[in-house]
């Protein structure tokens, strides 16, 4: 049908208006212009083919306006700024015994965490991302790899900022049933689908990974990851300490009620003896629990290899509703286990638990519980959850730290509650109740006292 002059003028104005709106707010370009065009189709003002042409024209004008306004080259297609601020109250407590009656068993502190980052999207499925994070200084002025918290102390002294993420990503395959990407740099920990027993939630690994996924059908997906990461650059040796690994995960959504996940992985730490994690080295010890050399050229380094086999499984059932919860309510049972053949004994770890609900949007919440049992040499202690801590009255084998320290050789309970007050504001309360599995493992008799680690958080995200 031939358009009248009025119709042509109207559609031209609509196209220009959609492009101008998207240019003014580049992050919401797709959402705002597509919603407007869809509404015009619903009203019968535009046909489907005309809407398709309008989207193409809008995208073209958006790219021109975006490049002009930001000064970025024309191959940059968009950017996204993200960040968060979290305030924390933290409490430690341990039971007193005759052996540790003179120790400082109870302490509390106030802390905060700040993140600010950006993701830049480019043509040809390229992406660059970075994030700056707060944190207390550790060895040689480095930040703590297991925590971006800054402690409120030092008479209001200025606190440090560190590079928490810096990576480049290329996704050469992203069509049909296949996706394939590769990432290099300092990246998010979720490139592997491990829980906190394996990787502390604040870790951002440094290295390279290849990730892929194949959608078998509308119910089943297979995802895989393979990567290599630097742990310690040994200045006087070519035998740097590194971590290599691979993981395969099968995810299934059987119907609107039931879904499941099953994963298997292998990790290997190469040259662990280069990780002389002592107070005098650049790679300072943060966690502890591994059996370590007490003398010789590798004093302070782990005594055994770490080549664990890791398996995990979960099943989720979703209710239509639940009291005091906004929306469908998921109930998840989950577990994870590992065995490290690199050590002859004390080489197993596991946890089992559940999650009720899922926080993240306004008036949603979740409650989680797990029981964890992580033997001394099941895994490299410096990568495990540092909040999952026990109390040490004396330094193990004269190495490490006294007081509340995370790592391995720990068993106990974990409980957490999250509540999303709004889409951007969340309250959390977390409690660990732990003790040492073997108080004599490292040659120092430890009192059999339990430890409690509690913290309450309020987090703003944007």
- Main sheet: strands, sense, barrel: 16 strands, antiparallel, barrel
Compute the average pLDDT: 86
Oligomer class = single chain
CATH level 1 class label of the largest domain: Mainly Beta
What does this structure look like?
It is built from three helices and 19 strands. It is mainly beta. The chain has two domains: 5-70, no CATH class; 77-461, Carbohydrate-selective porin OprB (Porin, Beta Barrel). A 16-stranded antiparallel beta barrel has the order 1-2-3-5-6-7-8-9-10-11-12-13-14-17-18-19. Strand 12 and strand 13 form a beta hairpin. Helix 1 (5-24) packs across helix 3 and helix 2 (29-42) runs antiparallel to helix 3 (48-70). The radius of gyration is 26 Å and the shape is globular. The two termini are 47 Å apart. 29% of the residues are buried.
Task: Break the fold down into its secondary structure elements and pairings.
Elements: H1 5-24, H2 29-42, H3 48-70, E1 76-94, E2 107-122, E3 126-135, E4 150-151, E5 160-175, E6 178-186, E7 206-215, E8 220-232, E9 241-253, E10 258-270, E11 309-319, E12 329-339, E13 348-357, E14 365-374, E15 389-392, E16 403-406, E17 410-420, E18 425-436, E19 451-461
Antiparallel strand pairs: 1-2, 1-19, 2-3, 2-4, 3-5, 5-6, 6-7, 7-8, 8-9, 9-10, 10-11, 11-12, 12-13, 13-14, 14-17, 15-16, 17-18, 18-19
